Amino acid sequence: MPAESIFENRSWSILHEFDQERKLHHPPDMKTKTRKSLYVTEEMIQSAQHRGLSLSDYLAHLHANQRSIRVAYVASVYRGFALLEMARVPVDPAYFDLVDGVLGEEDGIAFRKLGGSGKEHAVPHAAARLMGADTRCAAVEAIFMAASRASVMHEGYIEAARLLEATIYR
Fold it and tell me: Does 44 reside within a domain?
């Protein structure tokens, strides 16, 4: 027979409301069918057919592999931004070269165009746009905006990199 633990000891306290046994309330059952809309381009359908996969399998493969790699690359770019900020490297050329080197020339051109526009908070906007259509883009941009207002951009980039890595397998 196992020994009695401290949790099995039924003693009554002075505050009786904490000793009352309450029935657990379970959430109501949810509908098994949920409606979601998904729009895909013709290129996606052709790519799935070319590989001999169903469209759902192809999309699951893309989400599992390509998106997580992209997020890892963007997180490394953010870390690099933080190091550049802490080293007090001139902002524009170093950031643009970093994006070119990590994410490729096409993303580098888009980043250079948006980041060099001269608008207020252009580099944080451009950096958050590196996420593409990812749902975390707005959260990362909010961190950057708060960090740039506090004149500590590098801490914002470090926090954004942590946010991305923590949610890579959402």
Answer: no
pTM comes to 0.55
CB 47 within 8 A of CB 100: no
CB atoms within 10 A of CB 169: 8
Q: Is 48 helix (H, G, I), strand (E, B) or coil?
A: helix
Question: Would you say residue 8 has pLDDT above 60?
Answer: no
Mean pLDDT of 61-85: 78
> What are the backbone angles phi and psi of residue 15, rounded to the nearest 5°?
-90, 100
> Which amino acid would we find at residue 103?
L
DSSP letter for 74, please.
Answer: H
What is the number of domains present in the chain? 1
Q: What is the pLDDT of residue 43?
A: 81
Domain range enclosing 122:
67-166
pLDDT at 155 over 60: yes
Domain assignment of residue 132, yes or no: yes
How far is Cα 70 from Cα 65, in angstroms, rounded to an integer? Answer: 9
68-86 and 153-166 are packed helices; what angle lies between their axes, rounded to 10 degrees? 160
Does residue 134 come out as left (phi exceeding 0), alpha (psi in the -120 to 50 range) or beta?
A: beta
